[in-house]
Design brief:
The chain has 661 residues and is an alpha/beta fold. It is built from 26 helices and ten strands. The chain has a six-stranded parallel beta sheet, sandwiched between helices. Mean pLDDT is 79; it is low at 386-392.
Length: 661
């Protein structure tokens, strides 16, 4: 790296870290953070960084890796399965949208080559944002989710078409159909050559890399494959990004697909982030200030036109207005490929700097509006739903209807959360003819479980009116299965206020919040990790020929003592002292008492260890061990105390026991 590039590169990275963290709080995608960084540090604002050839090259590599990852996701069997949506609806959506934008651009006086670039940049939607929003809302497999994904798959193919023809438009006043045809044939020939070598050479290379069990070799092989394909397409007069896509497509059906995605992702994220920064750096703020009115008009027109076009076509083919409308709103924005196409067009002098700023600003503004439009579609779609009388209970019904549907239930089980654990429980309750009702907040899971005949309803278990509607006060047991202990704690507080007479069993992943859950009203708390340990111990003792009655008694004793024996562990160099939420883990730590130690000669009770959420599990005294010593036990010089404590209290407790601090 050129030394003169080091400081600008550091400025970009530092600014990106700050911007991503700021936008994370308002739930905006990182793409917008990178774009804003480019605008702020670029040559048209504070001028911290100048747009250089090095930035341009690295940003182009980012697009190569973006298309490489896109190629990995390209699945021919999936295309065939969704052929009606992909090749029917997707083709019509891209064709109609791009043709109308092309016509408007020509009427506004733009050259045909420039109009083609603009139509391609605005016709395609943002795969990254739409997919992210669908996954977060668990709507990927819904009706509108499948329509959106099908159209996006065809848009990926259309992106390859634009990548091929844009270089052929360079320096031409009029479009030469023969030149474009030659470029398309050239691209097809290159595709066949790469597929031939990809099917024979690449599997051999990756097999050898995998046999070496070297992460470095595997990553380098992946980088070489992507960059070599990019170099071949660039040498052939096509775009580097096309080569990345072809390389990814060749490896998309291989057994190395998922490992490749994991290995390439850091390079893609960093270089692609630099690409979006470079896009932001090319935004001429003066041009934006002069054309802000037109940017807003174009953005609103783009959102409205693409929504109406996609909705109309989807409704004609699928006869489902609700899902067609939601898919139309989801795909109404411009996409990240538009930035790549505009950058490619600028390098071939097909788009002016001012026009690039206007179109780029339009795409950015439309992407910012996307999360809001998707939420709006979720609300407005209810008015487009045709009211029917389903043969099975509606899982999204109102509370007064719930009371009618569950009024016959008595002594039943209420299951809050229908994930893996909740589903396992029902598989045991059903053969025993024990009645149960389920409440869950995942709309997709609720819809699919209801279709399978489960008595499940959508809602929040913390709502008293909803729990009352499903007869929770008449139930025999309430089971809280949420994987998030904090969510389970909030639910317990709500249930304790209204249903404190009903036994409540809570499932947790570990014992980190065991006491808090018990104090909040849980009748029983089942930590999965500790129960798994008990099951393992039971098998170990059985294989050691220990009598079954003794095994059961020991496990019963551990449970009756609220798993105290199992809490804490001796940490090592690789142990995490904090959990993924940042809270201190419980550990076991030995402390040796000498004659000069402050705790020598004092009782355990006088040390008030409970203030530190700690307790002495065992005392090693000469050749004997005192298990769970009583509070009145007097500590002596030479004792080794095995203390269960939060990891962040280790130094404080040692200071108290040894020096009295």
């Amino acid at each position: 790296m050129d030394q003169s590039f080091f400081e600008p590169f550091l400025i970009i990275l530092l600014s990106a870290v700050i911007a991503i963290n700021c936008l994370r709080y308002v739930q905006l995608p990182p793409i917008l953070a990178y774009l804003s960084v480019g605008v702020i540090v670029g040559p048209y604002s504070f001028k911290f960084v100048e747009y250089s050839d090095t930035i341009h090259l690295l940003s182009e590599l980012g697009v190569v890796f973006l298309l490489f990852m896109l190629g990995l996701e390209f699945s021919l069997p999936r295309m065939i399965t969704m052929r009606k949506t992909v090749f029917g609806l997707g083709f019509l959506q891209v064709l109609s949208t791009s043709l109308l934008i092309l016509l408007v651009a020509i009427l506004l006086g733009l050259p045909l080559a420039t109009a083609i670039v603009i139509s391609g940049a605005l016709a395609l939607s943002s795969t990254a944002i739409v997919t992210r929003e669908l996954i977060q809302a668990s709507e990927l497999n819904t009706g509108h989710g499948q329509i959106s994904i099908g159209i996006l798959l065809f848009q990926d193919l259309a992106a390859v078409f634009f990548l091929i023809i844009v270089p052929s438009l360079s320096g031409q006043q009029e479009i030469d159909g023969q030149t474009i045809l030659i470029m398309l044939l050239q691209g097809l020939a290159l595709l066949l050559i790469l597929l031939l070598f990809g099917r024979t050479l690449l599997p051999t290379l990756f097999n050898e890399a995998a046999k070496a069990h070297s992460d470095e070799l595997f990553v380098m092989t992946a980088l070489v494959a992507a960059l070599t394909a990019a170099w071949l397409t660039y040498t052939a007069g096509l775009s580097m990004a096309l080569g990345g896509f072809l390389a990814g497509m060749m490896l998309g059906e291989s057994r190395y697909k998922h490992q490749l995605k994991a290995d390439i992702r850091p390079f893609r994220d960093l270089l692609l982030g630099l690409f979006f920064v470079s896009v932001g750096m090319q935004l001429n703020l003066i041009a934006l200030q002069e054309n802000w009115f037109w940017i807003i008009v174009i953005t609103i027109s783009l959102l409205a036109f693409k929504t109406l076009t996609t909705t109309g076509l989807a409704f004609i083919l699928h006869k489902d207005l609700k899902n067609a409308f939601r898919a139309g709103l989801s795909l109404s924005q411009g996409g990240e490929f538009g930035f790549a196409l505009l950058t490619l067009a600028m390098s071939h002098q097909l788009v002016s700097l001012q026009l690039n700023s206007i179109i780029t600003s339009t795409i950015i503004l439309s992407m910012v509006c996307t999360p809001l439009l998707i939420k709006l579609g979720r609300k407005l779609s209810h008015y487009l739903t045709v009211k029917e009388h389903p043969s099975t209970p509606d899982p999204f019904t109102l509370t007064h209807t719930l009371q009618q549907e569950t009024r016959e239930l008595h002594d039943h089980v209420v299951i809050c959360g229908y994930g893996r654990v909740g589903q396992v429980i029902t598989r045991f309750l059903k053969p025993l003819n024990i009645p149960y009702v389920i409440i869950d907040s995942d709309p997709l899971r609720v819809r699919e479980s209801a279709a399978a005949g489960e008595r499940i309803y959508y809602g929040d278990a913390k709502r008293h009116d909803l729990m009352k509607s499903i007869g929770a006060e008449r139930s025999k047991l309430i089971i809280v299965t949420f994987p998030d202990e904090k969510e389970a704690l909030k639910t317990l507080h709500s249930l304790q206020n209204h249903l404190n007479h009903v036994p409540i069993l809570v499932r947790t992943r570990d014992d980190s919040m065991l006491e808090a859950l018990q104090q909040a009203g849980a009748t029983e708390v089942i930590p999965e990790k500790l129960e798994g340990s008990l099951m393992l111990v039971s098998h170990v003792l059985t294989m050691l020929k220990i009598p079954a009655t003794e095994i059961r008694e020991r496990i019963r004793q551990v449970r009756s003592e609220r798993y105290q024996m199992l809490q804490g562990y001796y940490h090592g160099t690789r142990s995490n002292k904090v959990d993924k939420e940042g809270a201190a883990n419980t550990i076991l730590h030995p402390v040796f008492l000498s004659a000069d130690s402050a705790a020598s000669g004092h009782s355990i009770k006088s040390l008030t260890l409970e203030r530190y959420q700690s307790r002495i599990q065992l005392i090693r005294r000469q050749q004997t061990s005192l298990q769970r010593p009583s509070p009145e036990t007097i500590l002596k010089a030479g004792d080794i105390l095995i203390i269960q404590m939060p990891a962040d209290q280790q130094e404080v407790l040692e200071a108290k026991l040894l020096s009295g601090g």
